[in-house]
């Protein structure tokens, strides 16, 4: 059973999946997992990250269960990304339109209206 898309931010999961597929058409390289999780955590909840990972795994027919997706996220979450990896992943995501600024940066620079948590990922009207 997959994690349902959070109701208060409908459309966020599909938008982020689209950005990731545009930035990584061949799939996210294993070496980018830790940095990608770090960048996504700036704006997304754990439930949203899990839903995105499950969606990407299902689209690629990787045969991963929801439990295995959670395990992989936990495993990679415990590691600290290298700054150069975060910069590379941020550049890839920014090229697709994903707002990569830190939450404490000026929210006016983020694409989209900031949501209640100030994450700047509200869906298009």
From TrEMBL:
This is DUF3349 domain-containing protein. The lineage of its organism: Bacteria, Bacillati, Actinomycetota, Actinomycetes, Micrococcales. Residues 100-115 have a biased composition (Acidic residues). Pfam families: DUF3349. Signal peptide: none annotated. InterPro entries: DUF3349 (IPR021784), DUF3349_helical (IPR044918). Residues 84-125 are annotated as: Disordered. Gene3D superfamilies: DUF3349, helical bundle (1.10.150.430).
